[in-house]
Amino acid sequence: MASKNIGEQLDPIFVNFEKQSQWRLSLPAKVIIQQGFISIEMDDLGMGEYAGGRNRDQAIVDALSELPNFLKYLEAMASNRPNTEQSSKIIGGIFVLQHAKKWKDLFKCPCWPV
């Protein structure tokens, strides 16, 4: 998987989430998620057993397959926030970072920031 294609792979997932939920993802939220995938492809330090080529490819596949579940989790968590935070119906970058551990748990990679 090439980094230049990750945006093309993520866009349909983002669009589908936004159509099925009442929430939008902010540009910073999308960028944080995209940069995580680029890091899985490029970084060695912190990748643990996933640093090898085949394992790294599997980490990307697993992260992509669990992204819709992570976005649904974010939707559920956002829906429980105070009304003043929910008024815009936008999930922002800070919120994504606050819940990054859940995504790591979903796709079982020690490489995700927590």
Structure description:
The chain has 114 residues and is mostly helical. It is 69% helix and 4% strand. The chain is built from 6 helices and 2 strands. It has a two-stranded parallel ribbon with strand order 1-2. The longest helix is centred in the middle third of the chain and has 27 residues. The model has no long low-confidence stretch (mean pLDDT 84).
What is the helical fraction, as a range of percent? 55-70%
Stretches where pLDDT is under 50 for at least 5 consecutive residues are none
Shape: elongated
Task: Compute the separation of the termini in Å.
Answer: 24 Å
Strand segment tally: 2
What is the strand and helix layout of this fold?
Layout (H helix, E strand, L loop, with lengths): L2 H18 L3 E2 L1 H16 L10 H27 L3 H4 L3 E2 L1 H6 L1 H8 L7
Parallel strand pairs: 1-2
